[in-house]
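Fill in residues.
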């Protein structure tokens, strides 16, 4: 009866920090995308997969809408537009605000030009009064976008997510399963572990530094006796002064980053991890196409 199952690709779009990655992680029941309160946390499309009796939803998490200030920013904008084009449906994730800004206008223009079914998802509804959520919904509906459905959820608490899955399956077409039922993401363990280091750095470092860092996975292997993974990563920054901040006094900051990332890696890998971190300076790497490709900022095939 596979031909009666529904399947499709759902793009997740929104401004930075509205909870897109948190929502996606909760929808698939596993942490795949990294999360922080800083902008540019998600830099490239991340695919996650939810499979059940009704079929399969492939979620496409995108970077938050922003302006392109460098080559990395241009790549991120391209990720949004290319992901949007390949999707069967769109979830616009918003917050219950009282006023819309220029990023909402850019998203309205993008969505207004499509015939793809769109669901408006008002996240963080647990942080506002019901009347404030209702007012925000009216505000978004006044934009003239023909939303297929409008739902209020809390990604952090999991509120409203079953109803959201129901709405998504209702609007997806009948189709084949794109991934086997055991697949949760097409990200490799190496990629996820590198992102865990970047997440730890985002959470622990000062506001200025995180935008200019990347993480390069240098080595990852299980010991022959199966006792633990040995993992080595390089944190890449743009300035010599940032290197000192990342390392910290007496190595205190890089130890904190390593400890935080290691705990997450051990939980995901279900194994002990020996994590070694070092810091490299690559001046203006965000404007260097070769470095961008080397650090994983390139379009995936298919």
């Amino acid at each position: 009866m596979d031909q009666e199952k529904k399947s499709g690709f759902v793009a997740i779009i929104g401004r930075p920090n509205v909870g897109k990655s948190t929502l996606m992680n909760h929808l698939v029941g596993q942490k795949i995308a990294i999360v922080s309160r800083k902008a540019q946390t998600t830099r490239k499309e991340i695919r996650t997969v939810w499979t059940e009796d009704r079929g399969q939803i492939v979620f496409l998490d995108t970077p938050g809408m922003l302006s392109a200030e460098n080559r990395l920013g241009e790549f991120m904008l391209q990720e949004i537009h290319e992901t949007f084009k390949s999707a069967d449906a769109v979830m616009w994730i918003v917050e219950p605000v009282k006023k819309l800004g220029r990023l909402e206008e850019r998203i309205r223009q993008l969505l207004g030009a499509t015939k793809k079914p769109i669901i408006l998802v008002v996240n963080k509804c647990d942080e506002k009064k019901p009347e404030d959520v209702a007012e925000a919904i009216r505000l978004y509906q006044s934009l003239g976008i023909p939303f297929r459905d409008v739902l209020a959820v809390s990604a952090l608490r999991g509120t409203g997510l079953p109803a959201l899955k129901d709405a998504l399956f209702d609007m997806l077409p009948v189709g084949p399963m794109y991934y086997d039922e055991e697949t949760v993401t097409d990200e490799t363990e190496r990629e996820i572990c590198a992102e865990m280091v970047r997440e730890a750095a985002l959470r622990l470092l000062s506001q200025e530094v995180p935008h200019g860092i990347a993480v390069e996975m240098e080595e990852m292997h299980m010991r022959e006796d199966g006792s633990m993974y040995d993992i080595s990563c390089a944190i890449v920054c743009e300035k010599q002064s940032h290197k000192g901040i990342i390392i910290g006094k007496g190595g205190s900051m890089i130890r904190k980053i390593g400890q935080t990332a290691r705990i997450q890696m051990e939980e995901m890998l279900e194994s002990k991890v020996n994590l070694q971190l070092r810091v490299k300076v690559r001046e203006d790497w965000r404007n260097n196409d070769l470095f961008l490709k080397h650090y994983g900022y390139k379009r995936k095939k298919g």
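The first helix runs from residue 20 to 28.
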